[in-house]
Design goal:
The protein has helices at residues 14-23, 49-59, 86-97, 121-127, 141-146, 190-216, 223-230, 234-238, 258-266, 275-278, 297-300, and strands spanning 2-10, 27-34, 37-45, 62-65, 72-77, 102-107, 132-136, 159-163, 175-178, 245-247, 251-254, 269-270, 273-274, 279-283, 290-294. The protein is α/β, with parallel strands linked by helices. The protein has three domains: 2-65, 2-Layer Sandwich (Alpha-Beta Plaits); 72-213, Rossmann fold, CATH 3.40.50.2300; 223-300. Helix 5 (141-146) links the parallel strand 7 (132-136) and strand 8. The chain is globular.
Length: 306
């Protein structure tokens, strides 16, 4: 199992860290250098973490935990109007980024009103392109428990529900956080920051469960290995959008048009096989992007008929 960590230190002898990452079969996901300081996000085998920590200490740097690195998470409210607390939604999205996640904020087209809130099939399909979803449902207990839980009951990815009233449990979700409802200001107080930490902890738990499920039937390659290959494509190098290649738990989002570059991506070679043979490549439903879902070793090697 790969673990994603961040190195923060100087550039002096940092090539030794790069060599170690390569020797243990890890990958450099991102590096940002500012003068003599550098930040490196890496994916390494979990069992080799002590080696990286020792090398980091030798170089005078530090290791920062980024447990949600390599994930893309949707934070969803019934609407993004003031009626449905845009401030907590944005605060949650920002807080998760501190743990390494890529986040997006989404409002539903028909979310306003207890009896009229709806989610369309298209919206569900967009949400299911992410690794997990956080639904913020408001302050009113009866409204949340009787009506709005239907918004996510058919979502096929892990769901964390965030609500204002205190309830013991809700159906159809993997985790529940109470005590965060409608607000017209940012979450700055110590008790509010504690709630943001609680939400981050619940998200980490559901992502860890998903990763353990994948380990039971491992992917043919880790997403970061495909990212290294995609980074060599001219279209990716010329892409001006932030983070042209985004890692998912079981694949990647590539921010280049699907129709224009499908053939090129299909023919990319990964450990002697073409990408089209080890992954499902599909058009993203939101923007000119491509979704890549990696098949498992069993599927690729023929143990399971596709």
């Amino acid at each position: 199992m790969y673990e994603v960590l961040m190195y923060d230190g100087g550039v002096h002898k940092v090539e030794e860290l790069f060599d170690l990452i390569e020797d243990i079969g890890g990958f450099v996901l991102q590096k940002t250098q500012v003068q003599v300081m550098i930040i490196i996000t890496m994916a390494i085998p979990a069992e080799d973490r002590p080696l990286v920590e020792r090398k980091t200490a030798e170089l005078g740097g530090k290791i920062i935990e980024v447990p949600l690195a390599g994930t893309e998470i949707a934070v969803i409210g019934p609407t993004l109007g003031r009626h449905h607390m845009p401030h907590p939604i944005c605060d949650i999205a920002e807080h998760l980024r501190r743990y390494g996640a890529i986040t997006i904020v989404m409002g539903l087209a028909r979310g306003r009103g207890r009896k009229t809130c709806q989610i369309s099939a298209e919206e569900k399909a967009i949400i299911e392109e992410y690794d997990a979803a956080i639904f913020m449902l408001g302050n009113f207990k009866e409204c949340v428990t009787h009506e709005k839980i239907d918004l996510y009951k058919d979502i096929q990815i892990p769901v964390v529900t965030v609500i204002g009233p205190e309830v013991d449990s809700l159906p159809h979700c993997e985790a529940l956080v109470c005590g965060v409802g409608r607000k017209v200001e940012r979450m700055r107080r110590s008790e509010e920051i504690a709630k943001l930490e609680e939400i981050a902890d619940r998200v980490k738990e559901v992502i860890d469960v998903r990763r353990m499920e994948i380990e039971e039937d491992p992917l043919f390659v880790h997403p970061s290995e495909i990212k290294d290959i995609l980074d060599e494509m001219d279209a990716v190098q010329e892409c001006l959008r932030p983070a042209p290649v985004v890692l998912h738990v079981d694949g990647l989002r590539v921010k280049i048009p699907y129709k224009e570059h499908l053939k090129e991506m299909e023919e990319l070679e990964v450990y002697g096989r073409k990408l089209k043979d080890i992954a499902v490549i599909s058009d993203c439903r939101l923007g000119d992007s491509t979704i890549i879902k990696i098949r498992t070793k069993a599927e690729v090697e023929g143990e399971i008929k596709i």
